[in-house]
Amino acid sequence: LTVVGVAGDVRHGLELVAREHPDVVVLDPRLPDVAAGQAFLSGVKLAWPATRVVLTGWSAAGELPSANGQIAAYVSKSSPPDTFVTAVENACCAAADDAPVTEAAPANLA
User: Fold this and answer.
1) pLDDT tens digit string along 67-88?
2) What's phi and psi for 55, nearest 5 deg?
3) What confidence tens digit (pLDDT) does each residue in 20-62 have?
4) Distance, CA of 87 to chain centre
5) Nearest-angstrom CA–CA distance, 3 and 38
6) pLDDT at residue 90 above 50?
7) Please, what sign has the CA dihedral across residues 95, 100, 103, 105?
8) Is the pTM of the predicted complex or chain greater than 0.85?
9) Could you tell me if 24 and 1 are in contact, meaning their C-beta atoms sit under 8 angstroms apart?
10) What's the start-to-end Cα distance of the chain, in Å?
11) Which of 4, 32, 41, 61 lies 20 to 30 angstroms, CA to CA, from 91?
12) Rounded to an integer, what distance in angstroms lies between the CA atom of residue 36 and that of residue 93?
């Protein structure tokens, strides 16, 4: 996996996706607010429909915005790093159809 950039707002995020054409974007849809996250998802869906999105945050997967198949997974911010890596790797392999949002299983910490 290669991280190609980090953006703190919608405009910079869309510019980054336009410049780098990543296979997967990791996004907290609530930062800086829910409307901004939805605007970013809409922009990516419109301009780069094959780009998959891994959402992260503190909410349950059922409370997340819809992106008609672009959302490959949801990973809680409290998940261990390997869970994020697995979600991104799986998103790279996901078909660009209307796959449902899946919540990455937490690692067994016992």
Assistant:
1) 556 788 888 888 999 998 999 8
2) -90, 150
3) 999 999 988 876 666 888 888 888 989 998 899 998 886 655 5
4) 9
5) 22
6) yes
7) negative
8) no
9) no
10) 28
11) 32
12) 27
Q: If residue 76 lies in a helix (H) or strand (E), which one and from where to where?
A: strand 71-76
Confidence of residue 4 (pLDDT cuts 50, 70, 90): very high
Which residue do the tokens 């198949």 mark?
69
Nearest by Cα to 43 from 77, 62, 16, 61: 16
| Paired strand residues for 27 | 55
φ and ψ at residue 31, rounded to 5 degrees = -110, 130
> If you search the block for the tokens 């869906």, which residue do you land on?
45
Greatest CA span in the chain, whole angstroms?
44
Q: Output the DSSP codes for 4-26.
A: ----SSHHHHHHHHHHH--SEEE
Please state the separation of Cα 11 from the chain's center in Å: 16
C-beta of residue 52 within 8 angstroms of C-beta of residue 91: yes
Residue position matching structure tokens 């078909």: 95
Q: Crossing angle, helix 34-47 and helix 10-20, to 10 degrees?
A: 20
